[in-house]
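User: Run a structure prediction on this.
Assistant: Running it now.
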Amino acid sequence: MRETQTDSTTITPLPAHVAIIMDGNARWAERRNVSRLEGHRAGTENIRRVVESFVKYQVKYLTLYAFSTENWSRPKGEVRELMHILGRVIKRETKALHEEGVRLNHLGRIDRLSERVQKQVRYAIELTKDNPVMTLSVAFDYGGRAEILNAAKQIVKEGVDPEIIDEPLFSSYLYSAGLPDPDLIIRTAGEARLSNFLLWQSAYSEFYFTPTYWPDFDEEEVRKALIAYSERRRNFGG
C-alpha cells in the first residue's frame, strides 16, 4: 500500500470528482426529537461547509444528490417544504459561491420545479458559468434510470446512426455531459447502495460508506473519505 500523507491538504492522490448521496437527515432529526423538516434544514445548512472543505482540498468537481425522482412520493407537505428550502438556499448561497469561484450546475429534470425555482436555478447557472475553482452539481429531481432512458430517447429522436454510437457519444446525451465520471462516491448514514444515482457514470467509481448522518458530515469526515480513497488502487479492470 502506498504511503499516504494526511497533514492539511497533502493527501494524495485526490479524486477529481466526488459525488455524495446525502442521507440521514430524517434519522438525525429523530435522534434529536425534532421534525423531519428540521433535519432537512440542518442538512441544507451543512452543504456550504462541505463545499468549502472540498474546495480546500482542491477537488474540482462535486456532485450532491439532493432530491430523487422517487422522492416525489413523500408526503406532499414535506415535498413542498423541500422545494421552499431549495429556493431559499439558491437565493442565499449563489452570490457567496460565485465569489468563491464555484460554478453551479443542475442534474436532472427542471420542468417539474416551480417557475420561481426554475428561474433561480437558471440564474445561478448563468451567473457562475465561467467560475474556475469548482463545479458544484446539484442532482435535484434526478434518477439514474430516467437519465439513461432520456439519453436513449434523444438519440433515437435525432436519428443517430447506431453504428457510430459508442460510450463517449452516449455520455454526451446524459445530464452529466461535460463532467468527468466520479472517482469517489460517498454515502452517509450507514446505507450501502446507490439508490438510482449516477448509474452509468459510476462504472469504475470507488465507494465510501460512513455511518455519519449528513448534517454531521464535517471537514474531518471529508478528510477520512479522501484518505480512504488515496489508499485504494484503481486499475479500471486492467
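The radius of gyration is 18 Å.
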